[in-house]
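Build the 3D complex.
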Amino acid sequence: MKSEIIFESGDHKWIVLGRDTSKKDEVIDTNEYIIVSNGEAMLLDPGGIEIFPSVLAEITKYVSIEQIKVIFASHQDPDISSSLAMWLDLAKHIKIYCPWLWTGFISHFGMGTDFILNPIPDEGLELKIGDKGSTVFLVPAHFCHSPGNFSVYDPKANILFSGDIGAALIPNDAPLYVDDFASHIKYMEKFHLRWMPSVGSLRQWVRRVRNINPNIIAPQHGSIFVGENVHKFLDWLDNLEVGKWEMGAEASDINKAVWMKWKK
Amino acid sequence: MSQQLTKYRSDISQVFKLGVNILNNARALKGISLDLKLLAVNGIVQAGKIGSSQGQSLITLSGFLSDLPIQIAPELEDLERITTDLARQLTVSLISIIRFIFYSNALSISLDRLLIQSKSSFRASDFKILNIQELTKLSKNDVFLKTRDLDKENIEQIAQVNIGISENSRLMLDKALDLLSKAAAKIENLKRNGFIANYMGSNILIESSYLTSDQQSFQALVNNIRNIVNRLDTNLDSMINSIKDAENILRSVMMANQSN
Ligand SMILES: [Fe+2]
Ligand SMILES: [Fe+2]
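Done.
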């Protein structure tokens, strides 16, 4: 697993982890982010249980486990939430935040531990990293991917963590930062067309993010958008017609025959 | 994942599978018990048709036979309860041990990184990271003399969590071992009942050989009894084998965690 500091200013930094070459091929590659602020750390979308050992081993290069105060889960998917109980079992002082909509569901990943989840209300939350760290904002992103979904904005670094919005299924040797936006689209398009259900919610999220005006948008999969590419990305999203799925006429007919058979 | 972790993981999965086998076999016994009951009733009916004193002794023998399933029933219920508890206990232990394995794997990756960094010739596989004693002194090992405090703290923390899980797992596996030996005791009782059924069958065969008619139907009855007892024995033997295998693996797993 690789890791790199993507922002550093005084006692405040962002580290990205990812491109885990030791994981099984069928496990989707994920980015994990750590914000270290005044010696206290927040982990964003910590990755699934399969890659938990690699993520933990990589994180310990930068912070002590004791320094991790908060873990944020943007939504319920297993590539985020299946490892949460392992983190909490490792350090019981950690506070895990996830959308209120999913607390009951994510609790199924408790693995026999004392698994306490802090619900994020629909309208979002201001969250302080530990006692001494700075404050970040959990920005609503519902129905942009999951019906209970949040982004994280860190004003000090001017970075927005966007979860699965901006996710791209990239080859292993793709650059950490998007360099040519036009050629990056092919890695994102299918993901967004299939995993994003609502045009209206997406447009609202884009408007929200334009107001925030971050310098970096950091997604959970794929490369990171910086500067000009942030705007190109938001423009692209604004023109994307997501949430549409139609079965081809031929497949529809075949299935109709199957359904009729089931009915008998 | 390192070799020792892979072996540990496959051992635990194996015990889990054995637990499920034992439970399934215990449930299948109910069907066998019912078959035996039907046969015994059949024997009484047949014996009743014979008017002579020989008919009376066959009725008595078949009566003994029909009592057997009634005696077996509570034993079977106990066995099913014990094996259900066992499967549950093994599942809970398995989940806890899976956590142990994930932490061990993280520890192993971290140790390798630090050892490579410090140009040591040792690797994580040279440490018995499954072992409580080794985990206790891991971060204080001389090879980590020049390692940063941050790294030593993190190793210490992961090791401590695993010591906790390991101690807890030991209690859970002790309970599993206890349930395994309880199941084995019940199985011995059931085997004894199977032996008695066979013995009754032989007596029925002897008594019916004096009959001038109906010999064949009693012969068929006894054959059926023997078939059922054979099925019972096969099932019980398979359970005994699974129990022995599970006990052996559990003891070696516990040994890996505890021994020096
Ligand atoms: Fe997702
Ligand atoms: Fe994802």
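The two ends of chain A are 53 Å apart (CA to CA).
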